[in-house]
Amino acid sequence: xxxxxxxxxxxxxxxxxxxxxxxxxxxxxxxxxxxxxxxxxxxxxxxxxxxxxxxxxxxxxxxxxxxxxxxxxxxxxxxxxxxxxxxxxxxxxxxxxxxxxxxxxxxxxxxxxxxxxx
Length: 118
Known about the structure:
Blueprint: E1 3-7, E2 10-13, E3 18-25, E4 34-39, E5 46-51, E6 57-59, E7 67-72, E8 77-82, E9 91-100, E10 104-108, E11 112-117
Parallel strand pairs: 2-11
Antiparallel strand pairs: 1-3, 3-8, 4-5, 4-9, 5-6, 7-8, 9-10, 9-11
């Protein structure tokens, strides 16, 4: 059974940093594109960052220069380093991937809350 489990969220002050982790179990995802989304209250879920199996990255304009997505294939884990946090970064952050498991299946983690206080 494939599971994505996020951790690392919390309460931080404006300008602070957090590192989110997304650990995958049930499949090796070293060649899989992994994504971080976020959803703020009353807003649609938005794509924040993507990392391909080859390590190429892409970011939403709102987080460029502040967030960094990375992966540790030995740990089957993807990270989101978030620096210079702003109140508008407050959201539930989700890990997401299309993983081959009896066909290509889109998996979501349970989410981790990030709250940036001003």
